[in-house]
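User: Here's a protein and a ligand (guanosine-5'-triphosphate). What would the complex look like?
Assistant: Let me lay out the input and then the predicted complex.
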Amino acid sequence: MGQFISSLFAAFYTKKMDIVLVGLENSGKSTLLSVLATGEPVETVPTIGLSVKVMKKQGITMKCWDIGGQEKFRGEWGRYTEGCSVILFVVDVADYEKVPIAKKELHKLVISAERGNTQPIPMLILANKIDKSPHMAETELIKKLALEKIQMTPWIVMPISAVQSVGIENVLDWLINQS
Ligand SMILES: Nc1nc2c(ncn2[C@@H]2O[C@H](COP(=O)(O)OP(=O)(O)OP(=O)(O)O)[C@@H](O)[C@H]2O)c(=O)[nH]1
Ligand SMILES: [Mg+2]
């Protein structure tokens, strides 16, 4: 009985978060998720549709929705942001060619998330692959993504390297602060 009550108590009082990971294909979402969950990058294959991973950090159960970034999957991004806790938008900062597409998709997603939710959902923009050279600096990325145009959604940019585990602690701290 005691066990039952404590399980019930845990079910009610455990903090839970739904984290939606989006960004163009090859930006590093699945690699980042592996590093966040286990501390180690893994060899990835392109995500087909989506993959879900649950991780527990400081007593918070984080359910991560890692959605494929290929063009055919991008139409689904908005649907997953409905009712989610936070959005992680991953950008490959070494890919100068694709950043205009990332900008277009990011703004489409912000419009859709602002329409589909009563409260704006905080967005963490991850400037990934800072280990590569050359790569866009944070201010350049902010300009190229036209982030100043975002009005309701709170956003922040963090430079990271998922494969080299750089900046990952900051990502985890941010997530924990949003719970
Ligand atoms: N140099 C470098 N390569 C990275 C980094 N993060 C990921 N990669 C590489 O980028 C490639 C794509 O990584 P994924 O994590 O599969 O990308 P994704 O965003 O999940 O791609 P989709 O599932 O197709 O949307 C892999 O070869 C990774 O090893 C990074 O920080 N630096
Ligand atoms: Mg993937």
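Summary: The pocket of magnesium ion (ligand 2) is lined by residues 29-30, 44, 47, 66 (CB under 6 Å).
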